[in-house]
Task: structure prediction
Amino acid sequence: MSVPAPTPVIDAASQSSRYPAIVILDFGSQYSELIARRVRETEVFSLVMSYATSAEQLRALSPRGIILSGGPSSVYETGAPVCDPGIWELGIPVLGVCYGMQLMVQQLGGSVVAAGKAEYGKAPLHVDDPTDLLTNVEEGSTMWMSHGDSVERLPEGFVRLAHTVNTPEAAVANHDRRLYGVQFHPEVVHSSCGMAMLRNFVYHICGCEADWTTAAFIDEAIGDVRRQVGDKRVLLALSGGVDSSTLAFLLHRAIGDQLTCMFIDQGFMRKGEPEFLMDFFDRKFHIQVQYINARERFISKLAGVTDPERKRKLIGTEFIRVFEEESRRLGPFDYLAQGTLYPDVIESADTNVDAKTGERVAVKIKSHHNVGGLPEDLRFKLVEPLRRLFKDEVRKVGRNLGLPEEIVGRHPFPGPGLAIRILGEVTEDKLNILRDADLVVREEIRDAGLYNEIWQAFAVLLPVRSVGVMGDKRTYAFPVVLRCVSSEDGMTADWSRLPYELLETISNRIVNEVQGVNRVVLDITSKPPGTIEWE
Ligand code: XMP
Result:
């Protein structure tokens, strides 16, 4: 059994004026973040905190409610993560989910045993008490079960609210103390009435208000940024992705020309992308963007390099060099703005906190290249107004600030760009070939109305040639791989089952329109074992 590493608690440098209405204590469940997202879908602000957060810390935060997540452990194992028992005495409503419920039961004098029959998957819930937590949860509705242990005996003062065939105590409550437990996972989509149940907890039991709205977030974030940076200058490395674009709009609204955006063109972007970005930000929205043409530098670094890891390293290192030089040239800047999101905060601690000011300080720049340290004199203080948001929330903020769907809804694009979609050596000629092929893929996927259903769709250029025939002439040219995947988060993926007619059009267009390509092949590998990118 592994005890989960404690997740970051609200830090002194949180830069935010908002405290969570619901705190999720994380016992290592893969669903802890999902619970937080679901609560936020009810327009109530929630944060994930370590299971080790003390009752005193929670009292100081005074959330309206606490949710204990599930977790991989058994409560009776030695070393299993436990919460501070003082939590039961705070008078704050608590909902224990799966492991969280078992912990509640055990700490309050009931008992938990290894279930005779582990229960995984969907199970119909039989409601014994359709009030309170289970208001509007239909009799027989499907709930998602995933547990090996079960509650055997309830603590004093607890009653059963619902059961399933295999789990007598599937939902329980101590109404007087406002303590609740559910053996199922209301947060996953398979639990048909899970959201209704979470709403009951959040609104009726905890008395939360629906105030976590996009508009409220923007107002608060603008106030927070203004307070944080005062009249100082802020630098932002714009990539054109959703996060940095939303950040640019938000900061521009907050601090106007105190913001300088820097767009480093490595030469590995899609066709028309640098022009589109400059036109959009600089000329249309008057957000100052310094265009840095570094194409020569990058391509010459890659001459003769074929190893994928080496390519990535060289690109990453060069990016940091250009970033350093240009920020010195354009600076000085006091702050570096980063599009750090909430999952990054939960998962990483690559950042130091300045002992004097309590502000987060970048020791690395969170470029999409995941490389290298910054020199001492470039240790910017960080502005990270998106660090409380999940990706879907960033999109909402971006839309609300006026970013077009073309940016808000775009597919992920890797930092090293097309350079890792040209296998082997990257040359200017190959970049041009791939840009043209990639444009065909994008156009056709959009025209077919499939862009938003697909996680990523792109072309890959292989470093081999094969024979073909065009007109009466023999050709000897490169193949292009069509890579289209569906995915929830990029961690796993499946190849997209595109209609044959669409595949045919893409193939015909690429072979006919793109000089240097005479064959199109389809990648039908899922991840794992494949990766989404080819390098
Ligand atoms: P893989 O190829 O590992 O990709 O299955 C998973 C997701 O990550 C993206 N990706 C990157 N994104 N910098 C990025 O910002 C990178 O170096 C990088 N490499 C892969 C990839 O496009 C997919 O969405």
